[in-house]
Amino acid sequence: MLHIPLMLAALAAAQSPRFDTDTTVSVSQGSRLRLQNQGGDITIRTWDRSQIRIQAEHSSRASVQVDTRGQAVEISARGRGMGLATVVDYQLTVPTWMALDVGGMYAEISIDGTRAPVKAQTLEGNITLKGGADQVTLTTVNGFIDVTGARGRVHLNSVSEDVRVTDLEGELIVEAVAGDVDLRRISARSVDAQTVSGDVTFEGRLADGGSYLFTSHSGDVTLAVAEGSNATINVASANGDVSTSFDLRSERQSRRRQSYRLGSGSATVDVETYSGDLSIIRPSELRPRREADAERKGEREDDADEERLERRLEAKFKKLERGERDHDRQGEIER
Amino acid sequence: MHSEWTDLLSEYLDDELDAVTRRRVEHHLAECQSCAAVLNDLRRIVAVAPGYQGSNPSTELWPGIAAGIEARRVVTLPRRTGARWRELIAAGLLMAAAGAGATWYWVRGTVPAAGPVAEPPVLTAATPAGLNSARYDAAVAELEETLAANRARLDTATVRVLEQSLRSIDQAIAEARAAIQRDTANAYLNGQIAVNMRKKLNVLRLATRAIASET
Predict the structure, then answer these.
(1) Across the A/B interface, how many CB contacts are shorter than 8 Å?
(2) Structural domain contains residue B125
(3) What's the N-to-C CA distance of chain B in angstroms?
(4) Angle A286-334/B156-182 helices, nearest 10 degrees?
(5) Where are the beta strands (DSSP E) in chain B?
(6) B81 with B168, same domain?
(7) Judgement on whether residues B149 and B103 belong to the same structural domain of the protein
(8) Which of A160, A238, A318 is facing B186, going by the closest CB pair?
(9) A196 at B interface, C-beta within 8 A
């Protein structure tokens, strides 16, 4: 097992000082940003200026390029003379209106304050987004997704870890495999949340005429719905049970299917599990459950965080080593 | 047959529905044999239409019919501006109305000329209506092969996560299939199988895309 403090120190020594690149470029209204980063983190903040400030940490043998073609602004990094990808940690400040399309192999992606469409994809790393509008699409293979305050059509996909969405307005699709899906204060006419082995928790407003679908194969589904909601809740489960704090009677009952009506039944809520249970509760009942869950998960998450950090550092080292090797090889060829 | 569902089948085949609607359609198809039969008819028409190469039969009606079909010789259905599949079926019905000869020509005389046409999948309890099992298996096999051949290019932690995820999905699919076979009251699980099969494809695509960008 690698020792994290030593790795951090070595990594700091291996990399050049902070902000090897620090430049600001003007952009025209409506431009969009594209950044593909092979290795390294991407942190984006926003401001009201029509400019992008690019600050980046990287090896002295790397350089950052900004290519503007029409409405597209593309940022990329190259190892000098080689055209090879390198490890770069970006810190960008962009206009709030600027559409973002960012991605990386081993990258933490963090975006704060945008009011524009966002597309972000990483293989290994978390994605944190505050804001986002119109169309938001986030994908990570090995990392969690945390979205706050997005507006519009939001599509989130995490293979291995949890997805949390807070204060969303619009339409939401969440796909997970092993992680939990935790939806808080959601105001959406359409929600499709599915995971294979994680739990699904929905807390929010069920819009009249809205359409909601919650699926987990082996995890539990919890719906925290406000008193006075109008929804028809259809439940299908092979082995799961249904419990509710509301005074609900099953309107149509078969061996595997039950249907409940809240108020006028206007919204359609479909819940499907194979072995997971469904709870229909009031929002006030959710907090104690969340606290208990957080306590239970606390230790596990600490371990997971440490393991994730270690993995990412290891991956960065690999990238650095590979870059070094490629550079040496190129040097030999040139000599 | 339920028109509120069949109206969506054209877009469903073109994969133009949003995820929630698509899943609702799949759920309905898993349980409604008559709508599933319409989907299969539609698939047959779509499969045959691109391959039509026949010559005109000796009937005055045929040129008009053929022109109608010719206009729809596309691999995927055109974007929906109405219930296009209905038009295609209507063309078939018109052929039937034109006489047995035209129908025979359509069914017998034209298909062999275009080579073998794959029989659309028949809806069964273990085969979700929205998925062509053979094509799915082939796509998964190809992606798995790519992943296996290139796994050394990915970080070991990433490979581990991918493999665990794929195992979880496979297990969920297997459990759902077994549950349906044990108890047909679980037919709703067809929808979940379809979702998880798609999920598996997506995970494999993500992995292979990552490999592509790595190289």
Answers:
(1) 115
(2) no
(3) 50
(4) 130
(5) none
(6) no
(7) no
(8) A238
(9) yes
One domain, residues B178 and B99:
no
Q: Residue written as tokens 């596309």? A: B74
Measured N-to-C along each axis, helices B19-31 and B189-214 cross at an angle, to the nearest 10 degrees, of 140
The ipTM assigned to this model is: 0.72
Contact A153, A134 (CB under 8 A): yes
Residue among A126, A138, A274 at smallest CA distance from A196? A274
Same domain assignment for residues B144 and B85:
no
Residue B161 lies in a domain: yes
Q: Which of B24, B213, B214, B215 to mutate to test the interface with A (most CBs of A within 10 A)?
A: B213
Do B74 and B157 share a structural domain? no
Measured distance CA(B127)–CA(B180) in Å, rounded? 11
Rounded to the nearest angstrom, the minimum Cα separation between A142 and chain B is 7
Contacts of A211 in chain B (CB under 8 A): 20-21, 24
For residues B86 and B148, membership in a common domain is answered with: no
Same domain for B50 and B93? yes
Sequence-distant (≥ 6) Cβ neighbours of residue B29 within 8 angstroms: B5, B35, B36, B39, B123, B128, B129, B130, B190
Angle at A294 between CA A290 and CA A300, to 5 degrees: 150
Instruction: Give the integer Cα–Cα distance in Å for B211 and A172.
Output: 28
CB contact under 8 A, A159 and B188: no
Domain count, chain B: 2
Checking phi first, is residue A40 left (phi over 0); if not, alpha (psi -120 to 50) or beta?
A: left
Cα–Cα distance measured from residue A212 to residue A193, given in angstroms and rounded to the nearest whole number: 8
Residue B190, domain extent: 133-214
Residue B38's nearest CA partner among B83, B73, B1 is: B1
Q: For residue B160, is it within any domain? A: yes
CB-CB contact of A190 with A208 (8 Å)? no
Cβ <8 Å between A159 and B206: yes
Distance from CA of A187 to the nearest CA of B (A): 16
Contact A217 B176 (CB under 8 A): yes
Token duo for residue A28: 């025209």
For the four alpha carbons of A132, A134, A140 and A143, in that order, the dihedral sign comes to positive
Per-residue pLDDT of chain B (215 residues; tens, 9 = 90+): 677 788 788 778 777 777 677 777 877 787 777 788 778 777 766 665 544 444 444 444 444 444 444 444 333 333 333 344 444 444 444 444 443 333 333 333 333 333 333 333 333 334 455 556 777 888 888 888 888 888 887 788 888 888 888 999 999 999 988 888 888 777 778 878 888 888 888 888 888 877 776 65
